[in-house]
């Protein structure tokens, strides 16, 4: 979610959304080395990365395997719209 080269340790969060659930879930999160591993895995699997330090900080507070709280729905919906747009461009022939 966030890849920042500032003095703060890098953070990354992976979300998963299934149509039979109420909201996306935090399925992986970490700082430093763990963030690097999450981003590397995303890259290996051609998963788009969305960078937003503020949202990353808020999502770091969500426990693993928990749905995101309603107050983050709007921000995460914007991320999902961005990912959908990128995915649609990548698969266009």
How does this model look, in words?
This protein has helices at 33-44, 53-60, 73-90, and strands at residues 11-16, 25-31. It is an alpha+beta fold. The chain has a single domain, classed as 3-Layer(aba) Sandwich (name from scop), CATH 3.40.1690. Strand 1 (11-16) and strand 2 form a beta hairpin. It comes from Pelosinus propionicus DSM 13327.
Structural domain count: 1
Q: At CATH's second level, what is the architecture?
A: 3-Layer(aba) Sandwich
**Overall CATH class:** Alpha Beta
Number of strands: 2
Tally of alpha and pi helices: 3
* Mean of all residue-level pLDDT scores: 89
Low-confidence stretches: none
- CATH superfamily membership, which one? secretion proteins EscU
The helix/strand series, from N terminus to C terminus, equals EEHHH
Q: Would you tell me the structural class of the helices and strands?
A: alpha+beta
How far is the first residue's CA from the last residue's CA? Answer: 27 Å
The CATH topology is given as: name from scop
Q: What's the alpha carbon Rg, rounded to whole Å? A: 13 Å
**How would you describe the shape?**
globular
